Amino acid sequence: MGVKWTPEQESAIIAPKDSSLDNQTLLVAAAAGSGKTAVLVERIITRLKDMDNPLSVQELMVVTFTKAAAQEMSARIGLALAKAMESTDDAAMQERLERQLNLLPSAHISTLHSFCQWVIRSYFYKLDINPTARIGNEAEMALLQQEVLADLLTKSYEEGLYNIYELADFFSDDKSDAGLTAKIMSLYNYAMSLANPDGWLRKALEPYKEAITINPSDTLWGQYMWDNHVAVIDHIRERLERMEQILLDPMGPHKWQNIYDNQLAALSMLSNAQTWDDMGEACKHTDTFIKDQFRMGSKEAQAFNPILVAEFKSLGSQNKDDLKAMQAAVFTVSEATLQDQFKAQYPIIEGLVELTIAFHQAYRDMKQEQGIMDFSDLEHLCLALLVEPGTEDDPQPSDVAKELQDTFKEIMVDEYQDTNGVQETIINLISRVDNRFYVGDVKQAIYSFRMADSSLFMEKYNTYGGTDAVERRIDLAKNFRSHENILAATNFLFYQIMTEEAAELNYTEAESLIPGRIVEDAPEDWVGGDVELQLLDVSKDTLSASESDEDEGDDPENNERELDFIIQKIKEIHAAKKKVQNPDGTFRQIEWRDFAILRRSLAGWGTRAVEAMRQAGIPAVVNERDGYFEAQEIQLLLALLSIIDNPEQDLPMAAVLHSGLVGLDANELGALRLSGEGSLWSLMPAYAEASQDERLLAFIGHMERWRTLSRRYGVTDLLWDIYESQDYVNYVGAMPNGLVRRANVLALYDRAKGYEASGFRGLFRFLRFVESLRDSNQDMPLANVVSEADNVVRLMTIHKSKGLEFPVVFLSGVQKRFNMMDLRSELLIDKNAGLGLKGYFPDIRVSFPTMPWFYVKDVKEAALKAEEQRILYVALTRARDKLFMTGFVKGFKNSAGKLSSLGELIKHAASVEGQQLPTDIITQANTYLEWLIMGFTRHLDGGNPLRVAIEYEGPTYFDLPDKKCRIKVELHDGSLYGDLDYKADIDETTINKVRELKAVNSVELPQEIEDRFNYSYPYSDATRRTAKISVSELKRRFQEREIEAGTIDTLNEPIVTVDTGAKRAVSDAILGQAIKLDVCNVDSDATSNADSNDTSKANSDVTSKANSDVTSNTAVPTLIVSTDDLANSVFGRKPQALQSEEDVLTGAQWGTLMHEAMQWLPLAQYTQSSLTKELDALVTKGTFTEEERNLLSDTSLYKFFSSDLGKRLINAKRIERELPFSMLFEGKRVYDTLEDGENLFLQGIIDTAFEEDGEWVLVDYKTDRVKSGEDLIKRYKIQMDLYKEALQRLTGMPVKACYIYSFRLHDAIIID
Asked: Which of 134, 135, 501, 1243 has the largest count of CB atoms under 10 Å?
């Protein structure tokens, strides 16, 4: 027996045969659960079987949203073809179907990206691209974007392009250009979802340009503001008309006549304002008319009808709120002032647009140069092939597009509501007006964050015609998934809240869900029944509702109460062995896999929920779409990698020490911290030896090995060593949600492997890459480890659940507020509304909202809330048999008996007449709970607990569509829930054995296994011998020998007191001394590190830059400086070498600053004053902060440039600064114990080298405290010899002279 199709499904399958036309374009608006995929497959099979109008599968193009959907579609078509072959005896038909089955693998059933890739491959010779170009991975493209943008910004600063300084002042902070970079990338990413990105960007600029020359009231934004303002005035007028009727009633509140009169006078004043400035004056004086209060004594109230009193007060209060808001309306700003704002904004928005276009071009050029593409390139390169050159603004098909039009007889697009502008243009270019088949559901358009444009669907939905229209719409409204009561309750809610004004679509009978699944003869223990809204009242344990509405939904304690309620409900249903219905109509006992818990976001909740559920004996798995970098196991790994890169970082070090990897508790961690001064890493060896803490001793050994590995090998080798040595994979696997955690850890290894396969190297750069992904919100998806066969409760986001169905669904966290963070940005972007930029006061660095910003914000906020309604629709239509919605409320009244915001909402919604709720009530909602409450309040039975809670006695409009649906609303005492400490049912003897690490069951291991466990590596000495060394480490080893031999001299100097006002003088006075930020205590035992130059150079070998290169046992005098001069930290933006220091400026740190100055100062002849100006300019460029600038020694730098060596450097034709090198050298020069011929790998960075007469002159800068040049020669001779050798090997050119320039001695010392 074949499938019985509904008439609408039949039309979608056979059209245009049921019309008078030969060809049609169809838009199939398929509601949730309506079988749209089955219809699409059946249409394909029907077309392939049509012998009168033969069509090959290769003449079809089917576009799906995901690769998985494409594979499923191909599989379904293949199965349907096979069944069709079996069901016919017609030999010709069998032969035809068999041929189509053979051709199926080459059919174009794919995502649009895959189709674009095929087009580019087929016609690459028409494009200026390398035929071997590949698609870069995410890591590679992100790093390339950073590189291109950094170069573009540098060029912009150097040449003063794109109003760069105004842009930086507006979007960036004192530390970096991260803010500006983020804005450029968000604008670029948005534009790339459109067919003509550069054209759209320039078009978005036009309203700003036009606004400079016309009155603000005539601008797009001004007209919008005026229309909105007039609409508010009209609402006030409507309310006053009703208030007048109430006052005319004999039982009306005549005592409040003066309130009505005043509001009427305000209305008259506002209505008479005809110009912008007149309206502004009227708005400024509305406060005169809203001073009266709604006061009435209890005896007076007895004379009036309480219902009329309540209605009059409600209407008057709404008018007061509107009139009060007008005092801050944009009309209070004069047109002249607004014009000035537009003129100030234009250079900024113009610079941002042009800079984004320049980035687009530079990024495109770089990708072409390197022969790589990203996913947006696939669409845009394909578009370039399909669009006739010169018609980009109004795309016309090229010869390639016309060829494809002849190839494909029908273009089918699944999930059409999720397409964007580029994809729409591509589809239009390769098809005709009468051979497209779109299928989707605009009520499930929930992917705007992926740049999907639901307006494309809506435009067709509103304009396509009936049966005989060339462009025809067919509605599939019958739902075959959910029980009829779930559909009725969904209809009941959305009839009220989904309106064209509030949600871009009127939910009418045409959009409603029609039951296609009938549950007959259901057993008594069937799980189905009422749709339930279960709310926990937590007002007894929290602040009063009026004080806490703003935080509603984000309370961890109350989230745990809700979770406890859900767990108990799931256990209750499962224990009762409730029945669920199979798709074939039979019933079976419920299993764990039949439950799903959906939330808008799982961040900070999912993993905790899984842990609690497992503790309660419920198997559960969470699959979060994002949050990868926030996962506990990944955060710990990144913290470990961070300290391997730089162990002087105390925060990640504390995290690792406190974790299971080491296992220090809070007291032990505190004891380590208090054991001395310095970083945790510097204190650890002494503390571990003193306390004989084996955990710390082992950790120190691991750290030394890992740091060596990080320099010698790659990130992947380092990660794998961590996994093996710490058994990390099994460690996280034993934690709650262990399957996902284990997969996440292994995925990090795979991602690191992909990162290195892209040509990038180094732990430091990998960590920066991860950091950049986190900063730009480019999270990675968590690993997916759940299959349909797993008998576990599933926790997922609503987005993740789209397309899925479950017998029992819990929609959790309905009280959580919508995420409106994007609407706070200084720059808002919308396809139709354009760009909304805030204004800016540069003197005080404060931004303020402007007309364009308000306009785009209103458009985006309306679109955001419309999408939130669609997300709620998706959530409610996932359940087959039973739907629960859960959340918590902080009461409907406060302690004084005054209604909370939810209480007011119940009152307002209950009193509304008519089917649809007013737009202002709908759009004021900030949670799903508010929509549910305003809808369910008007249900005769289900809404009764809500009306009772606020003691509502007024009339309620119950005559609504689907009013007979069964809805249950229950309020529970929240204080009874929240104890998630479920006890596992395990024998106490077993628990004690586990605690004592004894075997639970005695098992005798085979000798081979014991031998393997007891295996000892025979070459353990070799594993502790470094094969790679940095110059910093090399110097340290030789200086340790000198210290032991007593050949390093000490230098004692008296304490120097510096006037707190002489900031600049500090830098010239502190050569080699330590500054301690303490005006009271003088510590003459402070220790100074001599020279940080080569430490800062050791970036490439991932050695901590905070370590000094030379450790001296010399006591260093302390320089006392006022905390006012060096408040908190003298470094607002620290160089990387200083990042681990907080309170002490050492000589090493001062040396780092001097080296940075020599790196960035232009090489030119200076006077003392011109050098000072150039150093000040480095502050402007962001190279140094003002505090760092004050610590530089102008005198020492000037003396260098005035020296003979400095002049030679300035005049040189070829100069290399900060030149990195790597080389092999004989290991016995460092380790006496090494065998002859064994080499070490050396890495370092040469400060400066310049060419003179065809030979190199090598210069190294030092800030050591020494008495003479001889001290420096003794200390650094070997280092300079190695530098000389490395430079000659690197360049193939001889070195004629090596100099150490001492900023301490102001002298150049030649090294023979």
From this structure: 1243
Cβ atoms of residues 31 and 443 within 8 Å = yes
* Residue of 1068, 1055, 1057 whose CA lies nearest to 1190: 1068
Average pLDDT score over residue span 277-306: 87
pLDDT surpassing 60 at residue 553: no
Report DSSP letters for 1020-1077, one per residue.
Answer: HHHHTS-SEEEHHHHHHHHHHHHHHHT-S--------B--TT-HHHHHHH-TT-EEES
pTM for the model stands at 0.70
**Rounded to an integer, what distance in angstroms lies between the CA atom of residue 496 and that of residue 506?**
10
Q: Where are the beta strands (DSSP E) in 817-873?
A: 827-830, 834-837, 839-841, 846-848
Q: Are 664 and 658 in contact (CB under 8 A)?
A: yes
Report the pLDDT averaged over residues 167-173. Answer: 89
Q: How far apart are CA 292 and CA 547, in angstroms?
A: 25
In our burial notation (b when 16+ CB lie closer than 10 A, e otherwise), range 1101-1139 reads bbbbbbbbbbbbebebbbbbbeeebbeeebbebbbebbb
Average pLDDT over residues 792-819: 93
Nearest one of 911, 903, 906 to 957, comparing CA atoms: 911
Give residue-wise pLDDT tens across range 913-951. Answer: 889 999 989 999 999 999 999 999 999 999 999 999 998
Q: Which residues contact 13 (CB under 8 A, 6 or more apart)?
A: 5, 39, 42, 43, 46
How far is Cα 909 from Cα 905, in angstroms, rounded to an integer? 6
The answer to whether 440 and 414 are in contact (CB under 8 A) is yes
Residue 1 has pLDDT above 60, yes or no: no
The secondary element (H helix, E strand) that includes residue 637 is helix 632-645
Burial 119-144 (b: 16+ CB within 10 A, else e): bbeebbeeeebeeebeebebbbbbbb
* C-beta of residue 1074 within 8 angstroms of C-beta of residue 1119: yes
DSSP state of 616: T
**8 Å CB contact between 1262 and 1091:** yes
3 state SS for 488-529: HHHHHHHHHHCCHHHHCCCCCCCCCCEECCCCCCCCCCECCC
Q: Which is it for strands 60-64 and 410-413: parallel, antiparallel or unpaired?
A: parallel
Question: Which helix (H) or strand (E) covers residue 728, if one does?
Answer: helix 728-733
Helices (H) and strands (E) in the chain, counts: 51, 34
Calculate Rg over the CA atoms of the chain.
37
Pairing relationship of beta strands 827-830 and 834-837 according to DSSP bridges:
antiparallel
pLDDT at 1035: 67
CB 1087 within 8 A of CB 1229: no
Residue 1053, phi then psi, degrees to nearest 5: -130, 155
> What beta strand segments (E) does 890-1022 contain?
967-973
Query: For residue 778, how many other CB atoms are within 10 A of its CB?
Result: 13
Identify the residue whose tokens are 């990105």: 197
From the list 337, 331, 425, 440, the residue with the least C-alpha distance to 380 is: 425
Rounded distance between C-alpha atoms, residue 1311 and residue 1281, angstroms: 9
Token readout for 890 is: 């902080």
